Protein backbone atom coordinates (compact mmCIF):
# COMPACT_ATOMS: atom_id res chain seq x y z
CA UNK A 1 0.00 0.00 0.00
CA UNK A 2 1.40 3.39 -0.94
CA UNK A 3 2.01 5.69 2.02
CA UNK A 4 0.43 9.12 2.04
CA UNK A 5 2.89 11.98 1.70
CA UNK A 6 2.81 15.76 2.03
CA UNK A 7 3.11 17.18 -1.48
CA UNK A 8 3.94 20.80 -2.42
CA UNK A 9 1.53 21.45 -5.25
CA UNK A 10 3.84 22.93 -7.87
CA UNK A 11 3.69 21.12 -11.21
CA UNK A 12 6.76 20.09 -13.14
CA UNK A 13 6.15 19.28 -16.78
CA UNK A 14 6.31 15.63 -17.72
CA UNK A 15 4.27 12.64 -18.76
CA UNK A 16 4.24 11.31 -15.22
CA UNK A 17 2.31 14.34 -14.03
CA UNK A 18 -0.26 13.90 -16.79
CA UNK A 19 -0.72 10.23 -15.99
CA UNK A 20 -1.22 11.00 -12.30
CA UNK A 21 -3.61 13.77 -13.23
CA UNK A 22 -5.70 11.44 -15.38
CA UNK A 23 -5.89 8.83 -12.65
CA UNK A 24 -6.82 11.47 -10.06
CA UNK A 25 -9.50 12.97 -12.24
CA UNK A 26 -11.09 9.60 -12.88
CA UNK A 27 -10.97 8.59 -9.24
CA UNK A 28 -12.15 11.83 -7.63
CA UNK A 29 -15.25 11.55 -5.45
CA UNK A 30 -18.31 13.58 -6.39
CA UNK A 31 -18.94 16.49 -4.02
CA UNK A 32 -22.32 17.52 -2.75
CA UNK A 33 -23.90 20.51 -4.40
CA UNK A 34 -22.65 23.75 -2.89
CA UNK A 35 -24.13 27.23 -2.56
CA UNK A 36 -25.44 28.88 -5.68
CA UNK A 37 -23.14 31.90 -5.16
CA UNK A 38 -20.00 29.98 -6.17
CA UNK A 39 -20.41 30.84 -9.86
CA UNK A 40 -20.82 34.54 -9.06
CA UNK A 41 -17.67 34.57 -6.93
CA UNK A 42 -15.64 32.71 -9.56
CA UNK A 43 -16.75 35.10 -12.29
CA UNK A 44 -15.79 38.11 -10.16
CA UNK A 45 -12.27 36.98 -9.20
CA UNK A 46 -11.09 34.66 -12.01
CA UNK A 47 -9.17 37.39 -13.84
CA UNK A 48 -7.12 38.15 -10.73
CA UNK A 49 -5.82 34.55 -10.59
CA UNK A 50 -2.69 33.98 -12.66
CA UNK A 51 -0.43 31.12 -13.66
CA UNK A 52 3.23 31.27 -12.64
CA UNK A 53 5.62 29.74 -15.17
CA UNK A 54 9.28 29.27 -14.25
CA UNK A 55 12.34 27.86 -15.97
CA UNK A 56 15.52 26.61 -14.40
CA UNK A 57 18.81 25.23 -15.76
CA UNK A 58 19.83 22.03 -13.99
CA UNK A 59 22.68 19.59 -14.32
CA UNK A 60 21.60 16.28 -15.86
CA UNK A 61 22.27 13.25 -13.68
CA UNK A 62 22.93 9.71 -14.81
CA UNK A 63 20.53 9.51 -17.70
CA UNK A 64 20.34 13.16 -18.63
CA UNK A 65 16.98 14.43 -19.74
CA UNK A 66 15.74 10.94 -20.51
CA UNK A 67 15.38 9.63 -16.99
CA UNK A 68 12.58 7.21 -16.20
CA UNK A 69 9.37 9.07 -15.25
CA UNK A 70 7.79 8.22 -11.88
CA UNK A 71 4.55 6.41 -12.63
CA UNK A 72 1.78 5.22 -10.31
CA UNK A 73 2.24 1.55 -9.29
CA UNK A 74 0.46 -0.74 -11.73
CA UNK A 75 0.32 1.86 -14.48
CA UNK A 76 -0.10 0.31 -17.96
CA UNK A 77 2.83 2.48 -19.10
CA UNK A 78 5.21 1.08 -16.47
CA UNK A 79 6.44 -1.88 -18.50
CA UNK A 80 6.74 0.18 -21.69
CA UNK A 81 8.91 2.87 -20.10
CA UNK A 82 10.95 0.29 -18.22
CA UNK A 83 11.98 -1.27 -21.54
CA UNK A 84 12.42 2.08 -23.29
CA UNK A 85 14.56 3.86 -20.70
CA UNK A 86 16.39 1.23 -18.69
CA UNK A 87 17.67 -0.65 -21.74
CA UNK A 88 18.94 2.42 -23.60
CA UNK A 89 22.71 2.80 -23.90
CA UNK A 90 24.98 5.64 -24.82
CA UNK A 91 24.82 9.38 -24.10
CA UNK A 92 21.55 10.40 -22.50
CA UNK A 93 20.44 6.81 -22.05
CA UNK A 94 19.28 5.34 -18.79
CA UNK A 95 21.39 2.17 -18.94
CA UNK A 96 24.76 1.51 -17.42
CA UNK A 97 26.48 3.04 -20.42
CA UNK A 98 24.54 6.35 -20.10
CA UNK A 99 26.36 9.62 -19.52
CA UNK A 100 25.21 12.61 -17.54
CA UNK A 101 24.65 14.70 -20.65
CA UNK A 102 24.65 18.51 -20.89
CA UNK A 103 22.75 20.87 -18.55
CA UNK A 104 19.08 21.15 -19.42
CA UNK A 105 16.18 23.46 -18.75
CA UNK A 106 13.20 22.38 -16.68
CA UNK A 107 9.87 24.15 -16.50
CA UNK A 108 7.35 24.36 -13.68
CA UNK A 109 3.86 25.74 -13.32
CA UNK A 110 2.13 27.09 -10.26
CA UNK A 111 -0.53 29.62 -9.44
CA UNK A 112 -0.75 33.09 -7.92
CA UNK A 113 -3.10 36.03 -7.56
CA UNK A 114 -2.97 39.78 -8.07
CA UNK A 115 -3.40 41.89 -4.92
CA UNK A 116 -2.54 45.29 -6.43
CA UNK A 117 -3.40 46.61 -9.88
CA UNK A 118 0.16 47.93 -10.18
CA UNK A 119 1.16 44.31 -10.85
CA UNK A 120 1.81 42.77 -7.40
CA UNK A 121 1.34 38.99 -7.26
CA UNK A 122 1.38 36.57 -4.30
CA UNK A 123 2.42 32.94 -4.73
CA UNK A 124 4.34 30.19 -2.89
CA UNK A 125 8.09 30.33 -2.44
CA UNK A 126 8.45 26.74 -3.64
CA UNK A 127 6.76 27.70 -6.94
CA UNK A 128 9.57 30.11 -7.86
CA UNK A 129 12.47 28.67 -5.83
CA UNK A 130 15.76 28.50 -7.79
CA UNK A 131 14.08 29.81 -10.94
CA UNK A 132 16.22 31.50 -13.61
CA UNK A 133 13.18 33.13 -15.15
CA UNK A 134 9.67 33.83 -13.84
CA UNK A 135 6.66 34.65 -16.00
CA UNK A 136 3.12 35.59 -15.04
CA UNK A 137 0.40 34.30 -17.36
CA UNK A 138 -2.89 36.17 -17.16
CA UNK A 139 -6.24 34.47 -17.51
CA UNK A 140 -6.46 35.41 -21.21
CA UNK A 141 -3.07 33.83 -21.91
CA UNK A 142 -0.95 37.00 -21.92
CA UNK A 143 2.56 36.18 -20.70
CA UNK A 144 4.68 38.81 -18.91
CA UNK A 145 8.12 38.53 -17.31
CA UNK A 146 8.01 39.04 -13.54
CA UNK A 147 10.59 40.16 -10.99
CA UNK A 148 10.98 38.77 -7.50
CA UNK A 149 10.16 41.26 -4.71
CA UNK A 150 10.94 38.94 -1.79
CA UNK A 151 10.38 35.50 -0.25
CA UNK A 152 9.75 34.04 3.19
CA UNK A 153 10.79 30.40 3.36
CA UNK A 154 9.31 29.89 6.82
CA UNK A 155 5.76 30.47 5.59
CA UNK A 156 6.50 29.41 1.98
CA UNK A 157 5.34 32.72 0.52
CA UNK A 158 6.70 34.94 -2.26
CA UNK A 159 5.79 38.29 -3.79
CA UNK A 160 6.33 39.10 -7.48
CA UNK A 161 5.97 42.27 -9.52
CA UNK A 162 5.30 42.71 -13.24
CA UNK A 163 4.47 45.60 -15.54
CA UNK A 164 0.75 45.44 -16.42
CA UNK A 165 0.00 45.48 -20.17
CA UNK A 166 -3.49 46.81 -19.40
CA UNK A 167 -5.74 47.55 -16.38
CA UNK A 168 -5.88 44.61 -13.99
CA UNK A 169 -8.36 43.05 -11.60
CA UNK A 170 -7.07 42.67 -8.02
CA UNK A 171 -8.45 40.80 -5.02
CA UNK A 172 -8.23 41.67 -1.33
CA UNK A 173 -7.55 39.68 1.80
CA UNK A 174 -10.39 38.61 4.06
CA UNK A 175 -10.25 37.74 7.76
CA UNK A 176 -9.24 34.10 8.14
CA UNK A 177 -9.87 34.29 11.89
CA UNK A 178 -13.61 34.55 11.17
CA UNK A 179 -13.68 31.22 9.32
CA UNK A 180 -15.77 28.50 10.90
CA UNK A 181 -15.58 24.76 10.42
CA UNK A 182 -17.94 23.85 7.61
CA UNK A 183 -17.77 27.23 5.85
CA UNK A 184 -17.73 26.94 2.07
CA UNK A 185 -14.50 27.96 0.30
CA UNK A 186 -13.42 28.18 -3.34
CA UNK A 187 -9.98 27.27 -4.72
CA UNK A 188 -8.85 28.65 -8.06
CA UNK A 189 -5.58 27.64 -9.69
CA UNK A 190 -3.83 25.82 -12.51
CA UNK A 191 -3.79 22.07 -11.77
CA UNK A 192 -1.94 19.91 -14.29
CA UNK A 193 -1.28 22.99 -16.50
CA UNK A 194 -4.80 22.71 -17.95
CA UNK A 195 -5.68 26.39 -17.38
CA UNK A 196 -7.69 28.15 -14.70
CA UNK A 197 -9.80 25.70 -12.70
CA UNK A 198 -12.39 26.33 -9.97
CA UNK A 199 -13.10 23.84 -7.18
CA UNK A 200 -15.18 24.20 -4.02
CA UNK A 201 -15.34 22.56 -0.63
CA UNK A 202 -15.55 23.35 3.05
CA UNK A 203 -13.18 24.29 5.83
CA UNK A 204 -12.33 20.94 7.41
CA UNK A 205 -10.10 22.26 10.21
CA UNK A 206 -8.23 25.36 11.39
CA UNK A 207 -4.82 25.95 12.97
CA UNK A 208 -3.40 22.70 11.61
CA UNK A 209 0.24 22.03 12.55
CA UNK A 210 1.73 19.47 10.15
CA UNK A 211 5.34 20.15 11.20
CA UNK A 212 6.33 21.64 7.84
CA UNK A 213 7.63 24.85 9.41
CA UNK A 214 8.01 26.75 12.69
CA UNK A 215 4.85 28.82 12.21
CA UNK A 216 2.40 26.18 10.95
CA UNK A 217 -1.24 27.19 11.39
CA UNK A 218 -2.91 25.93 8.22
CA UNK A 219 -6.51 26.00 7.07
CA UNK A 220 -7.46 22.46 6.04
CA UNK A 221 -10.00 22.09 3.23
CA UNK A 222 -11.53 19.35 1.12
CA UNK A 223 -11.74 21.65 -1.93
CA UNK A 224 -9.79 19.79 -4.63
CA UNK A 225 -6.18 21.04 -4.72
CA UNK A 226 -3.82 19.35 -7.14
CA UNK A 227 -0.33 19.78 -8.58
CA UNK A 228 -0.10 23.27 -10.04
CA UNK A 229 -2.49 24.76 -7.47
CA UNK A 230 0.44 25.93 -5.31
CA UNK A 231 0.26 29.64 -4.66
CA UNK A 232 -3.35 29.91 -5.77
CA UNK A 233 -5.98 31.67 -3.64
CA UNK A 234 -8.60 30.16 -1.38
CA UNK A 235 -11.68 32.40 -1.39
CA UNK A 236 -14.66 32.78 0.90
CA UNK A 237 -18.13 33.33 -0.56
CA UNK A 238 -17.59 37.11 -0.50
CA UNK A 239 -14.72 36.77 -2.95
CA UNK A 240 -12.04 37.65 -0.39
CA UNK A 241 -8.79 35.68 -0.18
CA UNK A 242 -8.72 33.80 3.11
CA UNK A 243 -5.76 31.53 2.31
CA UNK A 244 -2.97 30.54 -0.09
CA UNK A 245 -3.15 26.92 -1.24
CA UNK A 246 0.19 25.31 -0.46
CA UNK A 247 0.21 21.60 0.39
CA UNK A 248 -1.80 18.41 0.07
CA UNK A 249 -1.57 15.01 1.71
CA UNK A 250 -1.88 12.32 -0.92
CA UNK A 251 -0.56 8.86 -1.81
CA UNK A 252 -0.59 9.66 -5.53
CA UNK A 253 0.01 13.40 -5.89
CA UNK A 254 -3.66 14.06 -6.72
CA UNK A 255 -6.33 15.46 -4.43
CA UNK A 256 -7.95 13.12 -1.91
CA UNK A 257 -9.68 15.95 -0.06
CA UNK A 258 -6.88 16.89 2.35
CA UNK A 259 -5.41 20.23 1.34
CA UNK A 260 -3.78 23.02 3.32
CA UNK A 261 -3.71 26.79 2.88
CA UNK A 262 -1.70 29.46 4.68
CA UNK A 263 -4.32 31.67 6.40
CA UNK A 264 -4.75 35.22 5.10
CA UNK A 265 -3.93 36.71 8.50
CA UNK A 266 -0.41 35.30 8.16
CA UNK A 267 -0.15 36.05 4.44
CA UNK A 268 -1.17 39.71 4.74
CA UNK A 269 1.50 40.42 7.36
CA UNK A 270 4.23 38.63 5.40
CA UNK A 271 3.27 40.33 2.14
CA UNK A 272 3.29 43.79 3.74
CA UNK A 273 6.82 43.28 5.03
CA UNK A 274 8.11 41.79 1.78
CA UNK A 275 6.74 44.76 -0.15
CA UNK A 276 8.16 47.25 2.32
CA UNK A 277 11.54 45.70 3.16
CA UNK A 278 12.06 42.83 0.69
CA UNK A 279 12.50 40.55 3.72
CA UNK A 280 10.82 39.50 6.98
CA UNK A 281 11.56 41.36 10.19
CA UNK A 282 10.19 39.11 12.90
CA UNK A 283 9.98 39.82 16.60
CA UNK A 284 12.48 38.13 18.93
CA UNK A 285 12.02 37.36 22.61
CA UNK A 286 15.40 35.71 23.19
CA UNK A 287 14.32 32.52 24.94
CA UNK A 288 14.50 28.80 24.25
CA UNK A 289 11.22 27.08 25.01
CA UNK A 290 9.81 23.60 25.41
CA UNK A 291 6.50 21.87 26.00
CA UNK A 292 4.90 21.79 29.44
CA UNK A 293 4.21 18.08 29.91
CA UNK A 294 1.84 16.78 32.58
CA UNK A 295 4.84 15.78 34.71
CA UNK A 296 6.45 19.20 34.39
CA UNK A 297 3.12 20.89 35.15
CA UNK A 298 2.75 18.80 38.31
CA UNK A 299 6.28 19.74 39.39
CA UNK A 300 5.58 23.44 38.84
CA UNK A 301 2.09 23.39 40.38
CA UNK A 302 0.44 24.41 37.11
CA UNK A 303 -3.08 23.14 36.48
CA UNK A 304 -3.94 22.38 33.76
CA UNK A 305 -0.71 21.85 31.77
CA UNK A 306 -0.35 24.82 29.42
CA UNK A 307 1.99 27.51 28.17
CA UNK A 308 5.60 27.47 27.00
CA UNK A 309 8.35 26.56 29.45
CA UNK A 310 11.42 28.80 29.29
CA UNK A 311 14.41 26.44 29.13
CA UNK A 312 17.02 29.12 28.52
CA UNK A 313 17.41 32.87 28.20
CA UNK A 314 19.76 34.52 25.71
CA UNK A 315 22.18 36.81 27.55
CA UNK A 316 21.86 39.39 24.77
CA UNK A 317 18.12 38.99 24.21
CA UNK A 318 15.25 41.25 25.32
CA UNK A 319 13.88 38.71 27.83
CA UNK A 320 16.98 38.92 30.03
CA UNK A 321 16.66 42.57 31.15
CA UNK A 322 12.90 42.11 31.51
CA UNK A 323 13.52 39.56 34.26
CA UNK A 324 12.31 36.39 32.50
CA UNK A 325 14.17 33.35 33.87
CA UNK A 326 14.57 29.63 33.06
CA UNK A 327 11.70 27.78 34.70
CA UNK A 328 9.15 30.49 33.95
CA UNK A 329 6.10 29.32 32.02
CA UNK A 330 4.75 31.87 29.54
CA UNK A 331 0.94 31.70 29.55
CA UNK A 332 0.07 35.02 27.89
CA UNK A 333 1.89 37.30 25.43
CA UNK A 334 0.65 40.77 24.47
CA UNK A 335 -2.85 39.90 25.64
CA UNK A 336 -3.00 36.59 23.73
CA UNK A 337 -3.23 33.23 25.50
CA UNK A 338 -0.30 30.87 24.99
CA UNK A 339 -1.40 27.24 25.03
CA UNK A 340 1.86 25.67 23.82
CA UNK A 341 5.32 26.61 22.46
CA UNK A 342 4.01 26.92 18.88
CA UNK A 343 1.53 29.58 20.02
CA UNK A 344 4.35 31.63 21.53
CA UNK A 345 6.59 31.25 18.47
CA UNK A 346 3.82 32.46 16.15
CA UNK A 347 2.69 35.45 18.22
CA UNK A 348 6.25 36.65 18.89
CA UNK A 349 7.15 36.37 15.20
CA UNK A 350 4.02 38.33 14.22
CA UNK A 351 4.69 41.15 16.70
CA UNK A 352 6.44 44.31 15.51
CA UNK A 353 10.11 44.72 16.31
CA UNK A 354 10.60 47.31 19.07
CA UNK A 355 7.10 46.98 20.50
CA UNK A 356 6.78 46.86 24.30
CA UNK A 357 4.53 43.99 25.33
CA UNK A 358 3.27 42.42 28.55
CA UNK A 359 4.41 38.83 29.05
CA UNK A 360 2.57 36.88 31.76
CA UNK A 361 4.58 34.04 33.29
CA UNK A 362 3.94 31.53 36.05
CA UNK A 363 6.86 31.37 38.49
CA UNK A 364 6.69 29.04 41.49
CA UNK A 365 2.93 28.77 41.14
CA UNK A 366 2.22 32.49 40.89
CA UNK A 367 1.52 34.69 37.88
CA UNK A 368 3.85 37.62 37.21
CA UNK A 369 3.77 40.18 34.39
CA UNK A 370 7.00 41.24 32.69
CA UNK A 371 7.35 44.12 30.24
CA UNK A 372 9.53 43.23 27.25
CA UNK A 373 10.65 45.37 24.32
CA UNK A 374 10.98 42.92 21.42
CA UNK A 375 14.17 42.64 19.43
CA UNK A 376 14.58 41.47 15.86
CA UNK A 377 15.13 37.83 14.98
CA UNK A 378 18.39 37.95 13.04
CA UNK A 379 18.81 34.29 12.18
CA UNK A 380 15.45 32.51 11.89
CA UNK A 381 17.05 29.42 10.31
CA UNK A 382 19.01 28.65 13.45
CA UNK A 383 17.24 25.93 15.39
CA UNK A 384 17.40 26.80 19.06
CA UNK A 385 17.29 23.38 20.62
CA UNK A 386 19.49 21.36 22.90
CA UNK A 387 21.70 19.17 20.70
CA UNK A 388 22.57 15.80 22.13
CA UNK A 389 25.63 13.81 21.13
CA UNK A 390 26.27 10.17 21.81
CA UNK A 391 29.41 9.78 23.91
CA UNK A 392 31.20 6.48 24.47
CA UNK A 393 30.67 5.19 28.03
CA UNK A 394 33.38 6.75 30.21
CA UNK A 395 35.23 5.03 32.99
CA UNK A 396 33.14 5.43 36.13
CA UNK A 397 34.60 7.70 38.81
CA UNK A 398 33.52 7.52 42.45
CA UNK A 399 29.89 8.56 42.21
CA UNK A 400 26.57 8.73 43.99
CA UNK A 401 23.40 7.18 42.58
CA UNK A 402 19.97 8.81 42.31
CA UNK A 403 17.03 8.57 39.88
CA UNK A 404 18.86 5.90 37.87
CA UNK A 405 21.81 8.26 37.41
CA UNK A 406 25.44 8.04 38.44
CA UNK A 407 26.36 11.54 39.63
CA UNK A 408 29.69 13.22 40.33
CA UNK A 409 30.91 16.64 41.41
CA UNK A 410 32.28 18.59 38.46
CA UNK A 411 36.07 18.85 38.38
CA UNK A 412 38.74 19.67 35.81
CA UNK A 413 39.10 16.07 34.60
CA UNK A 414 35.34 15.58 34.12
CA UNK A 415 35.04 18.89 32.29
CA UNK A 416 37.78 17.81 29.90
CA UNK A 417 36.31 14.31 29.44
CA UNK A 418 32.82 15.55 28.57
CA UNK A 419 33.88 18.87 27.00
CA UNK A 420 31.89 20.92 29.51
CA UNK A 421 32.43 24.68 29.47
CA UNK A 422 33.69 26.40 32.61
CA UNK A 423 30.51 28.49 32.75
CA UNK A 424 28.37 25.38 33.34
CA UNK A 425 27.78 24.69 37.06
CA UNK A 426 26.11 21.70 38.69
CA UNK A 427 26.43 17.93 39.06
CA UNK A 428 27.60 15.85 36.10
CA UNK A 429 25.90 12.63 34.97
CA UNK A 430 28.51 9.91 34.41
CA UNK A 431 26.18 7.01 33.62
CA UNK A 432 22.47 6.33 33.05
CA UNK A 433 20.61 3.13 33.95
CA UNK A 434 19.22 1.85 30.66
CA UNK A 435 15.96 0.78 32.35
CA UNK A 436 15.35 4.06 34.17
CA UNK A 437 12.96 6.92 33.53
CA UNK A 438 16.05 9.09 32.97
CA UNK A 439 17.07 6.94 30.00
CA UNK A 440 13.58 7.25 28.52
CA UNK A 441 13.85 11.05 28.87
CA UNK A 442 17.19 10.89 26.97
CA UNK A 443 19.54 11.95 29.70
CA UNK A 444 23.07 10.76 28.98
CA UNK A 445 26.60 10.83 30.32
CA UNK A 446 27.99 14.35 30.15
CA UNK A 447 24.72 16.08 30.99
CA UNK A 448 24.94 18.44 33.93
CA UNK A 449 22.11 18.81 36.46
CA UNK A 450 21.99 22.53 37.27
CA UNK A 451 18.84 22.71 39.40
CA UNK A 452 16.51 20.30 41.15
CA UNK A 453 12.98 21.60 41.80
CA UNK A 454 14.24 25.08 40.81
CA UNK A 455 17.04 25.09 43.39
CA UNK A 456 20.73 25.06 42.42
CA UNK A 457 22.72 21.90 43.24
CA UNK A 458 26.46 21.25 43.43
CA UNK A 459 26.68 17.65 44.66
CA UNK A 460 24.90 14.32 44.66
CA UNK A 461 23.95 14.93 48.29
CA UNK A 462 22.12 18.13 47.28
CA UNK A 463 20.14 16.19 44.72
CA UNK A 464 19.26 13.35 47.10
CA UNK A 465 18.08 15.80 49.79
CA UNK A 466 15.76 17.51 47.33
CA UNK A 467 14.37 14.16 46.16
CA UNK A 468 13.75 12.99 49.73
CA UNK A 469 11.91 16.21 50.55
CA UNK A 470 9.73 15.93 47.44
CA UNK A 471 8.79 12.36 48.39
CA UNK A 472 7.77 13.55 51.87
CA UNK A 473 5.65 16.25 50.24
CA UNK A 474 3.85 13.60 48.20
CA UNK A 475 5.24 14.69 44.84
CA UNK A 476 5.26 12.12 42.04
CA UNK A 477 8.01 13.72 39.97
CA UNK A 478 10.99 16.01 40.25
CA UNK A 479 11.86 18.78 37.80
CA UNK A 480 15.50 18.94 36.72
CA UNK A 481 17.17 21.80 34.86
CA UNK A 482 19.75 20.05 32.67
CA UNK A 483 22.60 21.56 30.66
CA UNK A 484 24.71 20.09 27.91
CA UNK A 485 28.42 20.84 27.65
CA UNK A 486 27.82 24.05 25.73
CA UNK A 487 25.49 25.45 28.36
CA UNK A 488 22.22 24.89 26.48
CA UNK A 489 19.46 24.20 29.01
CA UNK A 490 16.30 22.14 29.04
CA UNK A 491 13.87 20.90 31.69
CA UNK A 492 13.29 17.21 32.37
CA UNK A 493 10.71 15.75 34.76
CA UNK A 494 11.62 12.37 36.32
CA UNK A 495 9.50 10.08 38.46
CA UNK A 496 10.53 9.87 42.13
CA UNK A 497 8.40 6.81 42.84
TrEMBL record:
Residues 1-32 form the signal peptide. The keyword Repeat applies. Its EC number is 3.4.21.107. One of its GO terms (biological process) is proteolysis. Keywords: Hydrolase, Periplasm, Protease, Repeat, Serine protease, Signal, Stress response. Transmembrane segments: none annotated. It is found in: Periplasm. Residues 274-365, 386-485 form the PDZ domain. Its main location: periplasm. One of its GO terms (molecular function) is serine-type endopeptidase activity. The active site is at residues 126, 156, 230. The keyword Nucleotidyltransferase does not apply. InterPro entries: PDZ (IPR001478), PDZ_sf (IPR036034), Pept_S1C_Do (IPR011782), Peptidase_S1_PA (IPR009003), Peptidase_S1C (IPR001940). GO terms for cellular component: periplasmic space. Gene3D superfamilies: 2.30.42.10, 2.40.10.120. It catalyses: Acts on substrates that are at least partially unfolded. The cleavage site P1 residue is normally between a pair of hydrophobic residues, such as Val-|-Val. Substrate binds at residues 126, 156, 228-230. PANTHER family: PERIPLASMIC SERINE ENDOPROTEASE DEGP-LIKE-RELATED, SERINE PROTEASE FAMILY S1C HTRA-RELATED. Belongs to the peptidase S1C family. This is Probable periplasmic serine endoprotease DegP-like.
